[in-house]
Amino acid sequence: MADIKQAYLDFQGDMDSIMESVLCSTLEDESRIRAILESAIKDEQLPAYTTFTKESAHKQRARKRKGDQEAKEAEAVRHELGLADSSDSLRMLIQSRQQDREKQMDSFISAMEAKYCENSQKGGKKGSKKGKK
């Protein structure tokens, strides 16, 4: 609640900016956030900014359209990544990517070993002859 009031003060009542800055808020939370702010204005805890009190219906509809568009984009990305509705799908995706990274690291290390590590049979001292004089 303090975060909502602080966002209201920071953005001088601009509901677009308030909705973007309040953590974990969605389009469905707008009416609840608006009620909190209106109550605080009524109780004179917050000043009444005209950008908030006289917000046009057009601006509210534009915010709703933008939220709906973002929801559609998020759904498309979810399908593109192959995430199902369950929470296990995200865990499985993370584990799959982690395994891919491990394989890449193993192949990188193998390539570095092949490039920089000498074969132990090639090494040795040249010209050393034991027991011959």
Automatic annotation (TrEMBL):
Cellular component, GO annotation: cytoplasm; nucleus
Pfam families in the cross-refs: HTH_DNAJC9
Domain DNAJC9 HTH: 2-61
Record region (Disordered): 53-81
Lineage: superkingdom: Eukaryota
GO molecular function: heat shock protein binding
UniProt feature, compositional bias: Basic and acidic residues: 67-81
Name of the molecule in the record: DNAJC9 HTH domain-containing protein
